[in-house]
Structure formats: C-alpha cells, structure tokens
C-alpha cells in the first residue's frame, strides 16, 4: 500500500451519501468510489441515484456504487432509509449528510412555511438519520479507525449573509452547531463528526447563479481566491475526513469557500498602522 493510499484510501469501507446524485453530493460520491469505498447513494429520486451509480461503476474505479430512494424530510422517510441501509450492510464506516433544501424570497415576502420545509430536511433529518444509523456506525468503528460522519453546512452558516435564503442560512448555522454537539456526544463510540462549509459550487441548487459562464465569472469576483469551487476541492476534504489522515479530527467545520468565511471580517481599528 502506498503512503497516500494509507492516508486517504477507503478500500473495504462502506459509505452512505444522502442527496448523492447531484451537485456536491455527486462530487462526494465519486470521490469515495475513486478511493475504493462501496458507496450507497440515496435521494428522493431513485432513478437519478441508480443512474449516477451506473455512471460511477463505469469509471473502472476501485470502489462501487448503489443507488436507491431515500427521503430525510420526514420521520417516516428517515426510518425507511435507515431500514434500507440496514438491509444492505451490517456496518457503516462513513455517513455523509448531504441532502438539503433551500428557499429564496425577499425579506418582506418570506413565508412561515419556508422554515418548516427547510429545517425538516437540513436539521431534523440530518440529526435523526445520524441517530438511527449510530448502531451501524459504532459497529464499524474502532479506537484506531473511528467511523466518520460528515455533515454539509455552508459558508452562509458562518457569515451574516441571508441573500433571501433566511431559513437555509439559519439551518446551516444549526448544522455547524449540531456537528460540534454530536462530535462530543459520539466520541466515546469512536465516531468522528465534522462538517464542510462550502462556498459557491456549481450545483442544481446554485445553477440559477452559476450555470452561465459569464455569471459564474462575476460570482468569482466576490470570492477572495477569485474562483468558484471545483469537484477536487470537495473531494480532497472528504477524503481527508474519511481516511486515516482524518482519524484524529472531530468537531471541525472545514471552510471550503475560497476565503469567503473571512472576507467579511473588519480590520481592528480600521486597519490603521501603528
């Protein structure tokens, strides 16, 4: 085994990626398959998951993929997804809570219903699925090689930018805090819990702003590193958190945002030189 395979390889590991058929979830699924994992891909659209699994299995990568339906937006959906995962494996090494919803509307028009639908998936679904799958995670965990939970937060959960997505931004701040709480809660079971806080990546959720090259270039000017995210940016973080290299990291919120997370910090005393 090479040095890099030892640190980041996932041969023999089983992972579940919710919302793994599109956007950042698709990037994560591919990264895990390329690293050798068996990846279970679940979302509300079973055909999309099966199609992505076929695409990943055609890559001739060391891992494999399986796609099926799974909905974390309700208590019944979480229970059904956990049961399906239990039918497919008796241990789960990696859980990626990627499924998410957003809602955009002007401040004056933002509806009450936009809170329940977003929080149900982004917070309640994330917490409940993690709880339901904890026995499978614990079964895969050891002192030297803990099981891993990776939650998808957002840079909008770190900085005070609503941009009309008030419930989404608040839900992602909640994801970051839940990540820290669960990291403390599950450490004794040898399960690490970390979160990614992405900035702008091209996905179904951001296609309205980033799909056209001109708009994507304009969006990049607001990023300190002057570009939007690439699949490799997500892949590198996920493989670190999932592999041996990340075995001693828990409770972290990893900023994958090109510096947006610090761009809004004010200079103390206006940056006046002493």
State the helical fraction. Answer: 40-55%
CATH topology name? Rossmann fold
Query: What is the percentage of strand-forming residues?
Result: 5-15%
Number of domains: 1
CATH architecture: 3-Layer(aba) Sandwich
| Helix and strand element order | HEHEHEHEHEHEHHHEH
- Count of DSSP strands: 7
**Which stretches of 5+ consecutive residues score pLDDT under 50?**
none
CATH superfamily: NAD(P)-binding Rossmann-like Domain
Looking at how many chains there are and whether they match, the oligomeric state comes to: single chain
Q: How far is it from the N-terminal to the C-terminal residue, by CA?
A: 54 Å
Describe, in short, the structure shown.
The protein is 44% helix and 14% strand.
SSE inventory with pairings:
Layout: H1 3-8, E1 14-18, H2 23-34, E2 38-43, H3 46-57, E3 64-69, H4 75-88, E4 94-97, H5 113-140, E5 147-152, H6 166-186, E6 191-198, H7 207-210, H8 213-220, H9 231-242, E7 253-256, H10 260-263
Parallel strand pairs: 1-2, 1-4, 2-3, 4-5, 5-6, 6-7
Helix pairs in contact: 2-9, 4-5, 5-6
Describe this structure in words.
The protein is α/β, with parallel strands linked by helices. It has one domain (3-256): NAD(P)-binding Rossmann-like Domain (Rossmann fold). Helices cover 44% and strands 14% of the residues. It contains ten helices and seven strands. The protein has helices spanning 3-8, 23-34, 46-57, 75-88, 113-140, 166-186, 207-210, 213-220, 231-242, 260-263; strands spanning 14-18, 38-43, 64-69, 94-97, 147-152, 191-198, 253-256. The chain has a seven-stranded parallel β-sheet with strand order 3-2-1-4-5-6-7, sandwiched between helices. Strand 4, helix 5 (113-140) and strand 5 form a beta-alpha-beta unit. Helix 2 (23-34) crosses helix 9 (231-242), helix 4 packs parallel to helix 5 and helix 5 (113-140) packs parallel to helix 6 (166-186). The longest helix has 28 residues, at 113-140. The radius of gyration is 18 Å and the shape is globular.
